[in-house]
Amino acid sequence: MNKIVLGDFVEFNPQVSLKRGTEYPFVEMADLEPGNRFVKTSTKKSYSGGGARFHTNDVLFARITPCLENGKTSQFVQDIETDGFGSTEFFVLRGLQDVSVSDYVYYLTQLPSLRKEAEKSMYGASGRQRVNKNAFLGIKVLEMPLKEQHATVAILSRYDFLIQNNNKRIKILEEMAQAIYTEWFVNFRFPGHENVKFVDSELGKIPEGWCINNLSEMCSIISRGPSLNYNNGTIPVINQKCVRNSEIELEDVLLARPLSKNKEDLYLNKYDILINSMGVGTLGRVSRNLSIDTKMIIHNCITVLRPNKKNNPGFLYYTVNGLQNLFINISTGSTGQTSLKKSDVERVPVVAPKPELAINFWSKIRPAWDLIGSLKKTNITLKNTRDLLIPKLISGEIDVSKLDIDVEEEND
Q1: Is residue 245 pLDDT above 50, yes or no?
Q2: Do 262 and 252 contact (CB within 8 A), yes or no?
């Protein structure tokens, strides 16, 4: 196959006509999740003339650091075909008629070699560097025939559709668990609530028999992670970048040497709850560990909460997950160096239900949590396999022209 520059292979920032004052789907940079092909938004905003404009199936390519390095590239999808707009930091790519298809363009942007070339072209002040447009469009790619592009997409899409379906299941399971928590512990419509009186407390009216506990009373351990030795490290370290979307993401981990015996309790346990405790923008984010398959260490910018036997992980997680604004407010330090102290976390008061109610809640949601953990593990395997296949298929190392694949060719 011959090589061609990217600018001759794709339609770059294609023309999309939007009406000022009309609402359209709006995609923020935060909506793009590394490793997930599709981005869908429920947010609508009135178009006033700014931002990147795009249509269904267009590829949104993050051009700014560190979003590019973190892998933020997705295809825009909605329930119906539509136009949309979003962050000014997107390059918008579309298949070029008779040359390429948008689905294939997405996989092309996942090539490590293409992304490295884009990173090399970055310019600007530290922390706000952007990809140079001309250099980006000058990156050379293989000129794959349309039939083989469709075949490549057919193979790789199977992985992404499975990932997408798993993500839908995860979302439903999480919404179900959150709904039960809200009904029982926020609205106080728990089993038997009709026969319970309410009494005054420092946090307002609470059911009789419930109490106000500090977080330190509800955990067997509250600790910041240890100082670490990264020389010849082999064990993943959960840092600020890993705490997002209320889960632990492992796309950007560091590796450290094993902990000494007196610090082994700072290996991550299943159902541990993590609070990002340093920095601006991410401070106060909460996540949980639903896996025990990988030994991991907690970074010293993270506070770990390990629930005690009387207070199950489910109740404590959803309670703590609603406290991000409080954690931000009680943090200390100068701009850029804000920190949430372990001692301040320990003193945070929360409403604590009767132990038997918390246990009942846990029995209802634990199967959902375990299934979420299993689905996330499956997605990691699917993503890893897909990412191994992408360069082999696009380079021609795997010759798709000889594979018997039933594909439906459509012009994008």
Answers
A1: yes
A2: no
